[in-house]
Predict the 3D structure of the following.
Amino acid sequence: MVNWCAVSSGPVVVIGNFDGVHRGHVELLRAARAAESGSRLVAVTFWPHPMSVVRPAEVPPLLTSLSRRKELLRAAGVVEVVVVEFTSEVASWSPAQFVDTVLRPLHPARIVVGENFRFGFRAAGDVATLADLGAGEFKVQALPLVTDGITPDSSTLIRHAVAEGDFGRVRELSDHPFRFSGVVIRGDQRGRQLGFPTANIPIEPGMAVPADGVYAGWVTRLDQPSPRWPAAISVGTNPTFDGVERRVEAYVLDRDDLELYGVEIAIDFYSRLRGQVKYSGLEPLIKQMHADVEQARHVLHAA
């Protein structure tokens, strides 16, 4: 749907949460670029997630940090990311207040949203509302949702796939791997004692994390140019040692010389190898760790 308006040299603005920056988001951005050739592409997003303010008990786990979201948006062609700090005051804005406060200062030539776009207090505004408020100033274009033929792509579908360890499905929906990142902390150092030194990242509340188990993937330093290292990844509490703190640990294959404490790293999940198991002692655990490393090596070599 496109409404009438005079042509402007302003940017094309897209609006959304963009959690995970999935295929539907990328298609929205592609269409926005094509609609106004040569115009700057600006993305308006919200942080924290609006549900954390509107219905805190129902806020979903986030697929990406704000910095990762910006990175993925820019990779998809966005020139500027405008972050609206979502507060109870912002939640109380009328649709007109949202347009006056956030959109008009950007002087958009066109605003592109999904066909289910809602905004303003209690989601009172829709695409028609936005078109009415922008009549004579900017165009409004609403795009149909991208589907797999049946179900629309959504961050919710990706969250389910992450929770199930179905990373092939994650890549189908998002065109990039699920990434978990953070600063490496000093753990129990049991992995080093067992011959498998791991980089440990604490799990930040509110972030999506795969189910407990062992995975194959890659590790990359984020503080400097770095190769992508193949890795065996563990998510869980280390039940063999009666651990209680849930964490993500990555063993870079065949490397015991990496010093990563205090370094921000990215862990990209590729495939689930097995679930979490409590072993009766060190011997069966070490035997399984060797098997996990060889399976991860095989899986990643074929990737």
Notes: DSSP finds ten helices and eleven strands in the chain.
